From TrEMBL:
Residues 12-107 form the HTH hxlR-type domain. This is Winged helix-turn-helix transcriptional regulator. SUPFAM superfamilies: Winged helix' DNA-binding domain. It comes from Sphaerisporangium dianthi. The keyword Transcription regulation applies.
Length: 160
């Protein structure tokens, strides 16, 4: 199980996720492992990460329960996604989809599903409807916090 990291500021699952996976080398390593490149040399080559930094990030992802190391030869290991790591697929596809639209002129890679290019969409599993920003209603469950920030008397006076 992934242990919840302590993060400064608003208690937030996004902040906690970024604390575990948020640097470039971690996300690119996860991409490579998702693509089936599980050996350190493959991950280093395909990410362009400095080997020392990559080693630290992989060790951290293993310690945080996102990856696991499996021996394939004496003293040689491959990295595999845990169940927690597999659930990051939607995050990686979301980053790729956004990047295809906003960060590159021509997508360098296309993901296919049953012979067609995927068109990801965010859909509510409960009702099956597409989710848009306008449909969201935020409810704070963090003690001492509202949607606007810390629940202090000063904030109440300022917003009146």
């Amino acid at each position: 199980m992934v242990e919840s990291p302590v993060v400064p500021g608003r208690p937030c699952s996004i902040a906690a996720t970024l604390q575990l996976t948020g640097d470039r080398w971690s996300l690119l390593a996860l991409r490579e492992i998702l693509f089936g490149n599980r050996r350190f040399s493959q991950i280093a080559r395909n990410t362009g990460a400095p080997r020392d930094r990559l080693a630290v990030r992989l060790k951290s992802l293993v310690a945080d329960g996102i990856l696991e190391k499996r021996e394939y030869q004496a003293t040689r290991f491959e990295y595999h996604l845990t169940d927690a790591g597999k659930e990051l697929l939607t995050v990686l596809i979301g980053l790729m989809t956004w990047g295809d639209r906003w960060a590159v002129d021509d997508p360098p890679l296309v993901l296919e599903h049953h012979g067609h290019q995927i068109q990801p969409a965010m859909v509510c599993r409960t009702c099956g409807q597409a989710i848009s920003e306008d449909d969201l209603h935020l409810v704070s469950h963090a003690p001492g916090w509202t949607i606007n920030g810390p629940d202090t008397h000063d904030d109440i006076v300022q917003s009146s």
